[in-house]
Amino acid sequence: MFHYSQTLLVLLVLSCVVNVFGQDMSVPYSSNFINYLGRFLPSPDSTYFSFSWTHSTISINATNITTISATLSGGKSSSRFLVVLDGEPQEPFVVGPEVDTYPLTPKGLSRDAFHTISLIKISEDQTQHKSKGASRFYSFVLSPGSKILPWLDERPSLHFIGDSDTAGWCSDGSPSTSDDFTTTQNSHTTWSSQLSESLNASLSQVTAVSGLGVLDSPIQPYLDNVLTYDSSTPYDWTTSPPSSVIILLGPNDDSSKSSKFKNAYRNLLDILVDRYSYMPNPPNIISVCGGSINGLDPCQLIESVTSDFNLKRSDRFKAYYTSIKTSTWKEINKLKNGYVGCDEHYNSKGHEALMSDILDDVVRFVYS
Ligand SMILES: *[C@@H]1O[C@H](CO)[C@@H](O)[C@H](O)[C@H]1NC(C)=O
Ligand SMILES: *[C@@H]1O[C@H](CO)[C@@H](O)[C@H](O)[C@H]1NC(C)=O
Ligand SMILES: *[C@@H]1O[C@H](CO)[C@@H](O)[C@H](O)[C@H]1NC(C)=O
Predict the structure, then answer these.
(1) Which of 29, 86, 256, 314 has the most crowded CB, counting CB atoms within 10 A?
(2) From which residue to which does the signal peptide run (predicted)?
C-alpha cells in the first residue's frame, strides 16, 4: 500500500506541475469523458478503478491529439493490453504489477480527425485470488491542446458469457508455441469480438473464464462479481443493460451427464432472467454452439434447453440457439489447417470461421 500511495503522490505532484505549464492534460479515471465497457470498481480512496474481467475497455474520443499515455498496473501476475485506434488494433503489450505510465500513442493519429482510442485488457486475471490479480487504471495523459469529446454510442450492446474461446485463450499462439498468456491471449481476436464488429454492436460486457462451464466448474458464482475472483465486490446488474446476451459454454462440462447438464444450463438462463428482470424490454438470450476441441458435444442439449425455456413464458424473455456447421467445425479443428492457436484453441482465423457461420442467425436474433 505504501508503495502505491507514494507513487500516486509523485504522480499527483507531476500532473499539477505539468498543468501549470500547460503542457500535458491529465484525465483522471473518474472523468465523465472516459467511456468504460465492462465492470470497474472505484478504489476506497477514489484514485483509481480496479478491473479484472477480460476485455474490460477504457475509451476516449478526442481531436487535436498527438500523444496519449495511461497510468496503470496489471495486477499481481501482470496483464496483456491492446490499444485500438478508430477500430485498428495496435501491437499488444504487457502491463506489470507496479503502477507505471505507459505510452500508448497509436500509429495514425492526426490533429484534424476525431479519434476513438480504446485501451483493452485482452488477458484474464491469472492470479485468481480475490482482488490481487485486478488491474488498475488511474488516468490518461494527453498532449497539450487535446480536445476531448463526449462518447456517444447508440449501438446495440452485447453481454458475452463464455469460456477460453471467448476469453481469447491462445488465440495469438500457434500449435508450436507455448501458451504463455502474455504473448498468446487476446480477447480482441475472438469470435465474440469479431461478431460485435460485424453486427455494428458494442461489446459492453465480457464475462468469460477459461476452463469454466455450467456444471463441473460452473461460471455462475462468478457472474455476480465486479472483480472476477472477489465475491466481496457484488456487481450491480442495472449499470449496463444489454440488448442481447450471447453465451458459448458447455465444452468444459461432461455433457454425457445429459439431464444434469441441461439443468445446469437452464440454471444459468434462469440467473440471467433474474438479474435482468428489471429491464422493460429484456435482452434476447442467445446460445451459440461451436467451441474448439470438443465444441459440438453439448449442442443438442443446449438446443433442447433453449426450446424448453421458451415454453409457456409470459415474461417477454426469449432464448435463441445457433451453431457452427459441422463441416466448418471439423475443418477448423484440424491442427494442420491454419485455424488453431496454442492448446488446440482457435486462432483469429478459426474464430472468424465460427463467427461467419453464426452471423446471419445472430443478426436476426439481435435485431428481432
Ligand atoms: C491544438 O493543439 C495545439 C498545441 O499542441 C494548440 O496550439 C492549438 O491551439 C490546438 N488547436 C485547437 C483548434 O484547439
Ligand atoms: C466523437 O465526437 C465526434 C464529434 O462530436 C462525434 O461525431 C463522434 O460520434 C464521437 N464518437 C464517439 C464514438 O462518441
Ligand atoms: C454494419 O455497418 C456496415 C457499414 O455501415 C453495413 O454495411 C452493415 O450492413 C452493417 N451490418 C449490420 C448487421 O447492421
Answers:
(1) 29
(2) 1-22
Is 237 within 8 Å of 277 (Cβ atoms)?
no
CA of 152 to the centre of ligand 2 (A): 6
Residues 107 and 197 in one domain: no
Atom 7 of ligand 1, nearest CA residue: 145
Atom of ligand 2 nearest to the CA of 149: 2
> Is the pTM higher than 0.85?
yes
What residues make up the domain containing 53?
24-149
Which residues contact ligand 1 via a Cβ below 6 A? 64, 144-145, 147
Q: Is residue 264 within a helix (H) or strand (E), and if so which, with residue range?
A: helix 258-275
Q: Which ligand is nearest to the CA of 359?
A: 3
Helix (H) or strand (E) holding 82: strand 79-85
In a domain, 9, yes or no: no
Per DSSP, what are the bridge partners of residue 295?
291
pLDDT in tens, the chain (368 residues): 334 434 444 444 443 333 334 689 999 999 999 999 999 999 999 999 999 999 999 999 999 999 999 999 999 999 999 999 999 999 999 999 999 999 999 999 999 999 999 999 999 999 999 999 999 999 999 999 999 999 999 999 999 999 999 999 999 999 999 999 999 999 999 999 999 999 999 999 999 999 999 999 999 999 999 999 999 999 999 999 999 999 999 999 999 999 999 999 999 999 999 999 999 999 999 999 999 999 999 999 999 999 999 999 999 999 999 999 999 999 999 999 999 999 999 999 999 999 999 999 999 999 98
